[in-house]
Amino acid sequence: MLTDSQLFFQLGLIMLVAFVGAGVASKLGQSVILGYIAVGALIGPYMKFTIFHFTYVGPVQNTELLSYFAKMGLVLLLFFVGLEFSISKLKRTKTAATILAVFNLAVDMFIGILIGVYMHWPIEDVFFLAAIVATGSSAVAAKGIMEIGKLSAPETDFIIGMSVVEDFIAMLLLTIAGGLMTRTSGGPSNIWQLVSYVGIFYLFFVVLAVFVVPRVLRHIEVIKNDEMFILFALGIVFTSVALADALYVESLIGAFFIGMVFAETSMTERLKEKLMSMRDAFVAIFFIYFGMLIDPSVLIQVVPLLLLAVPLMLMSDILLTSCIAVLIGFPSKHAFFVGTSSAFRGAESMLFASVGGSSMGVRYSKQLYAVAGPFSLIMDLIALPLLKKSARLTEKLTVLVPGYMRFTSSLISRTFSKLIMPQSLHIYGDARRTTLPLWSFIISSAVAIFFSYPLRLIPLAVAALSALLSISILRSDLNSSINLINYSNIGVTGSSAPEILSLIMKLVKGLLAAAIMVIALTPIYLPLSLVPVLVYLLYVVRTMHSTYKRLMPRIRPLFPGKRYSLATSPYVSKNSIMSSTTFSRRESPPGAIVLRGGFEGGRNVAFIKLKKGLKAQKNSMKNGFNDGIYPPRVR
């Protein structure tokens, strides 16, 4: 038991070292979170070393009382995350942000699970490890975007939308984590009993948000006294945490959901203003406490894990997420920017490490603490310079992509951009009809992971039916809109619509089938689950190549038999341009002339846009297919 002097000495020391750590981290251009963790490790009970006969021992040896302050910091942090949950932000980015967030988190979780199984960790430990390496940090990403002055860029809205979806999914993962903990620490052992508790919990907050809060909000707003308002706010936060814990749901989820209930109401700004200082103080204590629990002797043990996790997560976030962003309609430079922003890590990783480390059923709690901090630091150190140079890197990487992939990706991107990306004129329809079956597929697939056979067959069957329904609706939407989409500046005419439809449907069917196969094979033998992934990747390459070969004979190149770069592009006369120009449905501004030609080896050598004085300009295609490829010069 700590004496009064020991308690206040610890609190004073923590606040002072937090000040120093935050200052040093800010000077180095890093997140203050990393500064808190570093100084926490220096004063914690595991820090002990000897230099020249001088032995240093961490001054804070008893962390029991600090754990309660740290828990309060987590509660307030999750409450503010809930307050930031914005349906209006999500509406602006619609389906695109949801697709990117779900894909990014699903692939990262799968890679994290593979790493945990490779390290021979138990299933509970594997789950928390996967969550640590998979969940991105919207706060650190926003800081990086702010540093390079792109907060007002259009793609930033999609990054914010992604963070909203990922935060919500992360809370669902925490709910699952709570279930794993209660089954190992005296909670409900029956899975259906646990599901019923979770259902009651979610139903309570739905009723609160839809029916109760809108009716009582005006009565709460009349509280003018700040002291009374703060007491009311803290009371509902802590009561929600207690309710979650009573229903065997991870207690922090209660803070998140009560924050969601008051998000985007007239009280949101006042809640932030009055509680922000308290949040900052207790959150600093949490991160310092987190640093205290890092055992330096364990850091050596997690080096192999870091050597696996860092490159795999960078590949997944930057390359795979960027590819998906291109396919759903982002320009390539914007797509790479979005993918790189998803590589940042921060408080969310610490959150899962803290929850996992305090769980009775987790064997490798010290390793979870030890991996979260260094992993976040390394990812942030790599992601920030990549974010700053994303445009230049995109140009270099685009050249490495085979021509047939660039061509077919342009077709897919042009198609999905009209269905998924926000449109000012809704003449192409949208993908909202597929939202319900797609979410049904995602949820049933996630539920299937936590069941063993034969019960696993039930959610797998629901996932398969949802996939079939999604495919049917998508085909119907594409059939009704694909003929309205203009592919002329990609060198493709309307007669190629059946080939484009076939390409998209083959890739979507293969993706959903591969996902179901992975979930089905995982409990049988985990390495076997990689087979559907590899088969699907080969199938994608083969399908793209065969589609390219079928469509290429229909495209007439303007300059046959030659390839041109900026330096070697030919000079063409005005008469040659006018004789080669095809006037069809074009997307150029009035008064512009579009030169429609074809492709040589996948390179676009004929698309130019002529303004006053016949000055050649780069094509302004929105799908990024022409990045780094230049038109003929005009004399």
From TrEMBL:
Keyword Membrane among record annotations: yes
Cell compartment(s), UniProt: Membrane
One GO term (biological process): proton transmembrane transport
Keywords for the protein's UniProt record, in alphabetical order: Membrane, Transmembrane, Transmembrane helix, Transport
Cation/H+ exchanger transmembrane domain boundaries: 16-371
Family of the protein in this entry: Belongs to the monovalent cation:proton antiporter 2 (CPA2) transporter (TC 2.A.37) family.
Name this protein carries in UniProt: Cation:proton antiporter
Protein's organism: Candidatus Sysuiplasma superficiale
